[in-house]
Design brief:
By secondary structure, this protein is mainly β. The protein has 2 domains: 107 residues, no CATH class; 76 residues, no CATH class. Helix content is 0%, strand content 36%. Strands 1, 4, 5, 6, 7, 8 and 9 form a 7-stranded mixed beta sheet that branches. Strands 2, 3, 10, 11, 12, 13 and 14 form a 7-stranded antiparallel beta sheet that branches. A hairpin with a 4-residue loop joins β13 and β14. It is globular and about 45 Å long. This is LppU protein. Keywords: Signal.
Length: 205
């Protein structure tokens, strides 16, 4: 079994993904820590199994983490954005959630990116004189039934009938209150968010 990860190159952003892709039915868990181009990322931890039964939702949970901080780019928790650019020159724009241009959802705000939950997919932060002034904690804008290409520099929405995807997935369900991909009743893979206890169930394209 090989390590599964994807790398996102986004400027002034720290890829803090601790979400691990695990295969259902395997006896082991595959974990990986995707890193931004500057290789700044947290150490991954193996997820633990939940004893409680999962609950299916239609959208990924938002944490509501608001630890302060200030960014010139204004966004509220629950807003979606299109994040791109490079490590030294990030671009961020508002986008309608679930739209072709949306690739991330704001799930929290913090003074520094290391105050975001450890399992967020990305953090956009701004600095003044080398000191962080604020961060937006971001998860991929997962849409049930939608498809994403995760093999590029940034997540990108794609047509589910595409045959040219490198790491294309279709989102089938989002299970709450669990850290086990075995709780995915649909799909054979999942992205585990162990701190906030949910799994995005997917099938590869």
């Amino acid at each position: 079994m090989s390590r599964q990860s994807f790398s996102l190159r986004v400027a002034v952003s720290a890829f803090a993904a601790a979400a691990a892709l695990v295969l259902a039915g395997c006896g082991s868990t595959v974990t990986g820590t995707p890193l931004a181009a500057d290789n700044a990322g947290p150490a991954s931890t193996a997820p633990t199994t939940s004893a409680g039964s999962p609950t299916t939702t239609s959208a990924a949970p938002t944490t509501g983490v608001n630890k302060g901080g200030s960014t010139d780019f204004q966004a509220n928790i629950g807003d979606c954005v299109q994040l791109g650019g490079t490590t030294d020159n990030a671009t961020i724009e508002r986008a309608s959630c679930g739209s072709q241009s949306s690739n991330y959802k704001v799930v929290g705000k913090a003074r520094t990116n290391d105050q975001c939950p450890t399992d967020v997919d990305q953090a956009y932060y701004e600095t003044l004189n080398g000191i962080e002034t604020g961060a937006l904690c971001l998860d991929i804008d997962w849409v049930i039934g939608g498809c994403l290409e995760l093999g590029g520099e940034d997540p990108e929405r794609i047509d589910c009938s595409t045959t040219t995807a490198i790491e294309g997935v279709q989102v089938l369900a989002i299970e709450r209150n669990t850290t086990s991909v075995d709780d995915c009743t649909q799909g054979d893979q999942g992205y585990v968010y162990d701190e906030r206890r949910f799994v995005v169930c997917v099938t590869p394209l």
